[in-house]
Amino acid sequence: MHLFLGARRISKANLRLLHISFSHSLVSISDLSNIVSITKDRIEEVLVSKAAENDFNFRLETLAIRQEVLRELHRKGGSTPTQFSNALDKELLQWCTKQFKSRLTKEHVEGLSELLFESFTGLMHRNVNILPNTTCDVIVISMCNAAMNGSEIITMDRVIVCFNQMKINGYSPGIEIYHQLMLSLLAPEVKLSSRRSDVLDSLLSSASRSGVQITSKTFCIIYSALGPLNLNDNMGGDVFMFERQMLENFAIPHDEHTLFSIISVLMAGRNYNQALDRFEDMRQAGFPRSRELYNMLFFQCSKRFWMAQYALQDLQYVMLRDCKEFGWLPDEETYRHLFYCCARTHDLTTAVTLLTTMERNDLEPDSISRTIIKFLHEHS
């Protein structure tokens, strides 16, 4: 058996033990511990040797090592090769979960995630379900990270399937794991065969049936995950569907965070009128309006002429009243987005006024803001 695969070779002592183990007509239980240990050592050697090189081939080499060892175990494992395969995959799972605590490159995280995924699915196919919750947590999180990094093997669809299979086999995830799955849908690299709203609804239902505590944070994540990656004509309807569940099914009232999330996703989805209605609801209810809320509003307003006019002629004065009420001041980002609105509307007068206000408040415009002001002067 050859376990070189183009990287640093396994040590001579380990290689000799591995050849001795596989030289018997049948692999014994006593041989198995050596084989498992050597296999982990070999993968770790690949990890170390490739770390400095940032070599993407790490993921392929680790999977190839596992497959080659499994083939040998099945070939010489006698009448019960499954016993040996399970032992190998269990050990690899435990080893992978420990490696994730180390500082690794993106490529190594993905490589380990795929190795972990292959070992896990191997156990599932062989109906092995003796995995502690903590191990299952790491499996889900690592697979989510791989899917978010655009893995071709670990897609979000596969993550969801594996997650559901783990639950069938006795896994009891906490709300944090459901949040991690939902947050993964925010990544632009994540592709789904179903609509995001359907996947989110399924996860919410699963969490509810499991008895975990659904909170306003859960719905903030859901609203955010409905965002600009899921632009469609029914975005407002999707938001309303989850909002109704929050208020009626889970009896969770709105707060400034849930409304912020709804306004943000509606603005990003170009549902401006609905977003501004929610902003007015927020004001009427007396919820705090933060600087981050206004920064988001001004940024989104700067993308459309009529919204930019609204920001400059109305919204910025509402912001000034809220500054006094809630005790905060606009920052450089606030003014930068207002300058964007000035550029959209070619409003030099307001831009000069804003610049004066910044200087009075000891704020220095950044290079982008200065470029906008220069552009407006040149084209006024």
Question: Would you mind describing this structure in some detail?
Answer:
By secondary structure, the chain is an all-alpha fold. The chain is about 70% helix and about 0% strand. The chain has 18 helices and no strands. Helix 3 packs antiparallel against helix 4 (about 80-100), helix 10 packs antiparallel against helix 11 (about 235-250) and helix 12 (about 255-270) packs antiparallel against helix 13 (about 270-285). The longest helix has 23 residues, at about 30-50. The radius of gyration is 28 Å and the shape is elongated. It starts with 11 loop residues before the first helix and ends with a helix. The model is unreliable at about 1-25 (pLDDT under 50).
| Number of helical regions | 18
Overall geometry comes to elongated
Main beta sheet: none
| Count of beta strands | 0
Elements, N to C (H/E)? HHHHHHHHHHHHHHHHHH
End-to-end separation: 76 Å
Helical proportion, percent range = over 70%
Which regions contain 5 or more consecutive residues with pLDDT less than 50? 1-27
Structural class by helix and strand composition: mainly alpha
Strand content: under 5%
Radius of gyration of CA atoms, rounded to a whole number: 28 Å
User: Taking all residues together, what is the mean pLDDT?
Assistant: 80
Features:
single chain, 380 residues, mainly alpha, 18 helices, 71% helix, 0% strand, disordered N terminus
In short:
With 380 residues, the protein is mainly α.
List the helices and strands and how they pair.
Blueprint: H1 12-23, H2 29-51, H3 58-76, H4 81-99, H5 106-125, H6 133-148, H7 156-168, H8 175-184, H9 196-210, H10 216-225, H11 235-249, H12 256-268, H13 272-285, H14 291-301, H15 305-326, H16 332-345, H17 348-360, H18 367-378
Helix pairs in contact: 1-2, 2-3, 2-4, 3-4, 3-5, 4-5, 5-6, 6-7, 6-8, 8-9, 8-10, 10-11, 10-12, 12-13, 12-14, 14-15, 14-16, 15-16, 16-17, 16-18
